[in-house]
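Hey, why these numbers?
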Amino acid sequence: MSTEVKISTEYITLGQFLQLADIIQTGGMAKWFLDEFEVFVNGEQDQRRGRKLRAGDKVDIPGHGVFFVK
């Protein structure tokens, strides 16, 4: 199952995305989450909370789901 996450700006950071997708509750949890869980952006593992995501990007978090930025 995949979920679409809509953004209203040119890009969003991975840390902001995790909050918007309801995976974490606060922005402060982003560093911890990225240290504990594997996150794949467009098929490549990425743990940078400042990674810029744009419309069309795919975020796959095993155990949490697949998300598409729209």
Observations:
- The chain has one domain: 2-69.
